[in-house]
Amino acid sequence: MKLNRRELIAASASTGALMGLGLGLGTTFAANNNLITRAVPASGENLPVIGIGTNRWVAGGTAEETAGLRNALRTFNELGGRVIDTAPAYRTSETVLGILIEELDIRDAFFLATKVDRAGTEEGIARMEDSLTKLGTDQLDLMQVHNMRDADNQLETMFDWKDKGLLRYVGITTSRVDQFAEMERLMNAFPLDFIQVNYSLGEPQAAERILPTAIDRKAAVLVNRPFGRGRLFKKVADVSLPAWAAGFDCSSWAQYMLKYVVAHPAVTCAIPGMTKAKHVEDNMGAGKGRLPDSAQRKQQEELFASL
Ligand SMILES: NC(=O)c1ccc[n+]([C@@H]2O[C@H](COP(=O)([O-])OP(=O)(O)OC[C@H]3O[C@@H](n4cnc5c(N)ncnc54)[C@H](OP(=O)(O)O)[C@@H]3O)[C@@H](O)[C@H]2O)c1
User: Fold this and answer.
1) What percent of the chain has pLDDT over 90?
2) 20: in domain
3) How confident is the model over 224-236, as a mean pLDDT?
4) 3 inside domain
5) Is 12 inside a domain boundary?
6) Is residue 4 in some structural domain?
7) Atom 24, ligand 1: which residue's CA is nearest?
8) Which DSSP letter does residue 19 get?
9) In this structure, are residues 35 and 284 in contact, taking their beta carbons and an 8 Å threshold?
10) Closest C-alpha to 48, from 99, 95, 109
11) In the predicted structure, residue 215 carries a pLDDT above the cut 50
């Protein structure tokens, strides 16, 4: 079942799902200052190294689904999280986020990133206008060309929108190694503020050319699939976290995987997909304390290769 924004609000209101957590409208939450931040090269703006991916933020309208996502978003905000990655391709994700951000009245706390995934100038403009409407804002922090579809064309529009103040930053995304050559071409052809790429202990290929090129081109880097779409957890299901992980303030496998990613000097922010508050709490812990140094990262890789 797919609901539009108005229908979702009605469904949520009728069940009381969005107000059922003891949080009133207008609630604001203090940012947690203990999170590690990284500067966006284009501006110097600091962002916490752990964000949130929302490609599974699908709410068909049931009270349980919406309440769970609201709790995850509230927890993310309470723990100082800022970067939210969504896309029109993620079914109800933009719509649900727009509703929850409005109801919690915390738009200013977030750095909202979405994507355009259409070929053709008019089609791209219509898609971006729709994202602004669904997310309930007149300016997006970051617009990205999803999987670089029709990128040369879409980027022309996006830089125009940036000039007009409708977007703060412009970027491109992929999660496929076979698109890395095209990503490198675009990084060299355009003054991109951001790139978004898959990088993890299970998919380390971006470290070969993409991440060094991002440093050279002064592009901020969002990392998608830091858990290999969750598959990396299967590898460690029956394995104890090594005692030496405490040497970089790591107390779970999720933190082990995320700290590996954000310790890379090119990485600005990892955006693990998470729909549950308990996962948000665990993952935000990766944005605190010490990060692994290069010798410890090597140790992390060797352990993972041995599993
Ligand atoms: N081409 C692109 O532009 C592109 C492609 C892929 C992804 N992305 C973006 O990147 C984001 C991340 O990628 P992804 O979501 O596909 O994969 P991922 O982040 O590697 O893995 C997400 C999975 O890990 C689980 N998880 C999260 N934290 C956990 C924890 N602490 N312990 C145990 N399990 C945990 C999640 O469960 P729960 O959901 O149950 O919390 C979910 O099943 C996406 O949401 C999307 O925003 C962009």
Assistant:
1) 84
2) no
3) 97
4) no
5) no
6) no
7) 230
8) G
9) yes
10) 109
11) yes
**Dist CA 210 CA 56 (whole Å):** 26
CB contact at 8 A, 64 and 77: no
Rounded CA-CA distance 165/138 in Å is 9
Domain carrying residue 255: 42-306
Q: At residue 167, what are phi and psi to the nearest 5 degrees?
A: -130, 145
- CATH number of the structural domain spanning residue 292: 3.20.20.100
Written as one letter, the residue type at 148 is M
Q: What's the 10 CA to ligand 1 centre distance in angstroms?
A: 28
Q: Determine which residue's CA is closest to atom 35 belonging to ligand 1.
A: 279
Centre of ligand 1 to C-alpha 270, Å, is 10
| Secondary structure class of 233 (helix, strand, coil) | helix
Which residue is it, tokens 């996006």?
Answer: 158
Relative to the CA of 226, which ligand 1 atom is closest?
20
Residues 91 and 87: their CA atoms lie apart, in Å, by: 8
Strand 37-39 with 46-48, pairing? antiparallel
Ligand 1 centre distance from Cα of residue 53 (Å): 6
- What would the pLDDT profile of 118-148 be if each residue is shown by its tens digit? 999 999 999 999 999 999 999 999 999 999 9
- Residue closest via CA to ligand 1's atom 10 equals 224
What is the C-alpha to C-alpha distance for residues 206 and 200, in angstroms, rounded to an integer? Answer: 9
Separation CA 275–CA 50 (nearest Å): 15
66 backbone dihedrals φ, ψ, rounded to 5°: -70, -40
- How is residue 154 written in tokens? 């879409």
What is the number of domains present in the chain? 1
Count other C-beta atoms under 10 Å from residue 10's C-beta.
13
Convert the pLDDT of each residue in 171-209 to its tens digit: 999 999 999 999 999 999 999 999 999 999 999 999 999
Q: Give the global pTM.
A: 0.91
Lining residues, ligand 1, CB within 6 Å: 53-56, 85, 146-147, 173-175, 196, 224-230, 233, 254, 271-276, 279, 282-283
